[in-house]
Specification:
Blueprint (H helix, E strand, L loop, with lengths): L1 H40 L3 E5 L4 E3 L5 E9 L27 E2 L2 E2 L15 E2 L30 E8 L3 E4 L5 E9 L3 E11 L3 E23 L2 E2 L5 E2 L11 E5 L2 E2 L3 H9 L6 E7 L2 E7 L2 E2 L5 E2 L2 E16 L4 E4 L17 E5 L1 E7 L8 E6 L6 E9 L2 E6 L1 H4 L7 E2 L9 E8 L4 E11 L10 E5 L2 H7 L10 E4 L2 E10 L2 E9 H4 L3
Parallel strand pairs: 1-10, 6-8
Antiparallel strand pairs: 2-8, 3-7, 3-9, 4-5, 5-32, 9-10, 11-14, 11-20, 11-22, 11-27, 12-13, 14-15, 14-16, 16-17, 18-19, 20-21, 21-26, 22-25, 23-24, 25-26, 28-29, 28-31, 29-30, 30-33, 31-32, 32-33
Amino acid sequence: MGMTNAVNGKHRRPYRIFLWMVLLFSVGTICAIMIVDIYRAVPDTIYLKAGEESEISFHVPLSGEIIMTTGGGRRTREVLNDLDGQNASGNTDSTDHVAGETVSAGDAGRSLLSGGGATDSIGDDNAGAAGSNAAYTGGLPDVSEADTESVIGRVPVNLAANVTFVANAENSYRAELRLFGIIPFKTVQIEVIDESMVYPAGLPIGIYVKTPGVLVIGTSDFVNEQGNLVMPAEHVLRVGDYILSVNGTPVTGKSDFVSRVAQSNGEVMVMTIERGGEQFDVAVRPARDQDREYKIGIWIKDSAQGIGTLTYVDADGEFGALGHGVSDSDIGVMLELGEGALYRTDIIGITKGKRGVPGELTGIIRYTDSNCLGSVTENSASGIHGEVNRKLMEQIEAEPIEIGLKQEVSIGPAQIYCNIDGEASYYDIEIVDLDYDSQNINKGITIQVTDRRLIALTGGIVQGMSGSPIIQNGRLIGAVTHVLVNDATRGYGIFIEEMLGR
């Protein structure tokens, strides 16, 4: 019997070790997931409106201190003023795209105020207990003009409770946070903005953008005069290259480049190209095909166009639209911008979205000077930006509203504001999830369309609706960016502060 127990004990030991390893691995995995979730729950940058009391509510086990320094606060444009006397002109922009499972459719004396009850107070070292009423009112040391980045205050912060904060634009702030108050975890920049109101637009727009030079979207071989397969540009040009000039003369577009190749007489062409942000020269010798035409074996393009939605216009006539960049559908990369314009577009048809097939808005874009509504000056991951003219401003029906920052957005009811059938309307949606991960700015807001009118009209979110303003509690909080291919009623949005470049 004793030997049997000893044998059984030996057999059980590896099993017990295995179970302990599984347990430790499971606990470690859960802890890692929790840490990642906590990290992602707090944005890398928090924006506050100058002089306004803001509540920060993340409810995560992070605490530390907010460090205040003089200078360096980023001032933005002034609060919305009357638009009389202002006028801008230009032109621009872009298309929605398919990607994976989605389609792109205070001052020194009162900087930190107290909370109460479950709200954590932020004050000096003798204040801050939950449930107390306290405020940071201590004096600050004199700071000379030369000492523009001096630390002028350090106050405790606990993100496990609500935090009420008032800041001004003259100072800079950052939060040094520790996990469970012990482990150094994350530094969060706190930026102060002046501008707080914009016009929500919701207008369909025709977008035209032109690349610098021409963009290489493919390479191929061809049969030359001797009947051999050749590819002159092989190992020289790559997909994604921009050809900016040939033999020192700028390339103005696709037809210009094709003409130069055809007239090369087979002589070496020295091309200045841009690749990965760097410019350098390469040499290619064209070859004649069986039709005796000179070619180098590449496919090129010089522009993109499509329909999107204008998100907002500010007091200076500057706009943001789409909520994602204009990308080339052939190679899936965001286009560099040479020039661009917005044009009047008329929606003439709607293809409803259904499972596995994204819907779309069909429209006529009127590419004439008289129908030009503005200029595109930037194509970025957060959308297209530029200036509108008076013609477009006259089409905006909504009154200016405040912007809502990330910490002011909550899971729950909201609305999409857009013009699909000739009249701007508000459509009900539900915000079902929020993601502050800075690596995925176009999908920070997960939404569900609940409005039966919109579902009946479009099936939910369709291509062309990218840029439609998302409004919650009377504030512009973001814009629609993508739709789930397998469920047209669900999609994603971008936080408005990302579009504003905050």
